[in-house]
Write a structure and sequence with these properties.
alpha+beta; Beta-Lactamase; 4 domains; five-stranded antiparallel β-sheet; about 45% helix; about 20% strand; elongated
């Protein structure tokens, strides 16, 4: 081991000599073999390995006992033999070389990157006769460095190609400079050639410098932000509102403060315009409301009683919007009351004619005609007044107490015929024809009031929505038995049909395609509630554009017993 100590630099050699002098010769051996680096001593004239440490075994895979006394070329550890030859020539010429990157092959065939140092030493005489080779495995370190470089390259590409204005500063220079990406220069209008690296303060982009201090303070504390609203200045002096987001990125060699900016100036302006427009609209609505309240004061007083009923219905948990049913009721009452008024006016005119005939001399035929007109007028008046009473009663039943619904046994054909008579003026005014196709033996033990309201609503719906204004059409009401205890009632029209986008919404409350043109959006909703509630049936709709619409009602011939008013109200709602 005395000769081996000369292989190493003088400082180590002195330590070895000192160690040997105190009788601890094995200290050098332990230090030699404990080194994680590959340390090999070769003879120059034939490349014979005269000594190798355990680090050589770790890096190459060969144990010292296997290689000592063998030429280095025997083990094929040099991936590039020509590189070894060049290094040997450099070693012979200069006596040493330092930190040369060399790929070395391990016993298992894997390649490791090593930093190699070599020094010539003299063991046999005063001339250099051997070389000390020291190799350090830097494979993992190089991979980590390469990964870091690739990561930095990806960050740089993403940073430069980002469509959002971005900047970053690094602690490598105490955040003294700021790097801006291309999108930032495009948005803010500064010149990359002259302004790259300058801070935001130097560029005077901060309208309120305290905003910058706030963001830097957050990043210094390791906090991040995503929606800080700041006002910034472009190169031409224009002020823009920006939504700033910040992130702190910690890398192995540096810490980055990264910021992004999204221009929200137009959005803020739009929001401000919307707020101003809403304010103006509120004032206009308030003014218009005052005008309407003044114009409709008398009507509001007339409907006060119905409003009280509506307020009670609004409090219902099942249907808060049922109060708007008042408008539908008024519409339904209009037909029988209008028919009755028309007939009363006609009867008044006939009475005046009869008075004139009495004054001129009354004939028997005149008396017969007058009596016939009187009977017809009385019949129509009674029918319409009864219908109006039924509608009022129906409304009270729906809105107040369903247990008052009148139930009786009746022929559906006879009931429908009477209903169509009361609807006669409305039907004639619409230029539509309504036909009924019912078998005489279709008996029902049910609620004629709700059934009448359902058929009336469906016919009126077909008149209003099924045909263009003034156009003629055909509406057919038909019924047939469906087994011993059910009836299928259909209301069909050959009109415009329902658009496919709307057909699934027809039973929703307040949905109408004729808002402000006679449609309240409650008619079919009321129909659905009556059919599925009080009448205990089901309703479906089928329609094809330009081919008409069919509402199909499947009703039990014996309506379900309604003994609980709360249950009835729940079914309606």
């Amino acid at each position: 081991m005395g000769t081996l100590s000369r292989l190493l630099p003088s400082a180590i050699r002195r330590w070895i000599l000192t160690s040997l002098s105190d009788g601890s010769e094995d200290k050098f051996s332990r230090a030699f073999h404990a080194s994680p680096d590959w340390i090999v001593i070769t003879r120059l004239r034939d490349g014979l390995i005269v000594e190798a440490n355990l680090g050589f075994q770790t890096i190459s895979g060969y144990s010292p006992s296997e290689v000592i006394g063998q030429p280095m070329s025997t083990f094929d550890v040099w991936v590039q033999p020509e590189q070894r030859n060049a290094l040997v020539q450099e070693l012979l010429a200069t006596g040493a070389f330092r930190d040369t990157l060399v790929p070395l092959r391990r016993r298992d065939g894997s390649i490791r990157d090593c930093l190699v140092n070599a020094t010539l030493i003299a063991l046999e005489d005063d001339k250099p006769s051997h070389a000390v080779w020291i190799a350090r495995d830097v494979t993992e370190a190089r991979k980590a460095a390469e990964a870091l470089r690739e990561s930095e390259a990806r960050f740089s590409r993403l940073f430069e190609q980002s469509p959002l204005p971005m900047c970053f500063a690094s602690d490598q220079n105490a955040f003294a400079t700021t790097h801006w990406n291309r999108a930032w220069f495009d948005v803010f209008g500064f010149a990359p050639d002259t302004d790259q690296g300058k801070t935001g303060l130097a560029l005077n982009i901060w309208v309120n410098p305290t905003d910058r201090e706030h963001l830097l303070g957050m990043m210094a504390r390791g906090e991040t932000s995503s929606d800080v609203l700041v006002q910034m200045r472009r190169a031409n002096g224009e002020l823009r509102w920006m939504q700033a987001a910040t992130r702190v990125i910690t890398e192995a060699a540096r810490t980055l403060y990264v910021s992004t900016y999204v221009d929200v100036t137009d959005q803020i302006r739009s929001q401000q315009e919307v707020l101003e427009l809403n304010s103006e609209l509120e004032l206009r609505v308030a003014d218009r409301t005052c005008e309407l309240q003044a114009a409709n004061g008398e009507l509001l007083r007339t409907l006060e009683t119905l409003r009280l009923a509506k307020d009670q219905l609004v409090q219902s948990e099942k249907l808060a919007a049922l109060g708007a049913l008042v408008a539908g009721v008024a519409h339904e009452l209009n037909t029988p009351i209008g028919n009755g008024l028309t007939m009363a006016t006609t009867l008044e005119h006939k009475v005046k004619e009869f008075d004139q005939l009495l004054a001129q001399g009354l004939k028997r035929s005149d008396l017969h005609h007058f009596l016939g007109d009187l009977r017809l007028a009385t019949d129509i008046l009674v029918r319409n007044l009864v219908r109006a009473g039924d509608l009022v009663s129906s409304f009270k039943q729906v809105a107040v107490d369903q247990t008052s619904t009148h139930r009786r046994r009746f022929l559906l054909a006879s009931f429908t015929s009477e209903l169509l008579i009361t609807l006669g003026p409305t039907i004639r005014k619409s230029h539509c024809t309504v036909t009924a196709d019912f078998a005489d033996e279709l008996w029902m033990d049910s609620y004629p009031g709700p059934i009448g309201q359902v058929l009336t609503n469906l016919i009126n719906n077909a008149i209003v929505h099924g045909f263009d204004m003034g156009a003629s059409g055909l509406i057919t009401v038909r019924a047939q038995a469906q087994g011993p205890d059910r009836l299928l009632v259909e209301v069909h029209d050959n009109g415009l049909g329902i658009h496919p986008d709307n057909i699934h919404r027809v039973f929703e409350p307040f949905f109408t395609t004729r808002l402000g043109q006679g449609g309240s959006g409650l008619g079919l909703h009321i129909v659905h509630n009556l059919v599925t509630g009080v009448l205990g049936g089901s309703i479906d709709v089928h329609s094809h554009p330009e081919r008409g619409t069919t509402f199909s009602l499947l009703l039990p011939t014996v309506a379900p017993a309604q003994t609980d008013a709360a249950k009835l109200t729940s079914a309606q709602n």
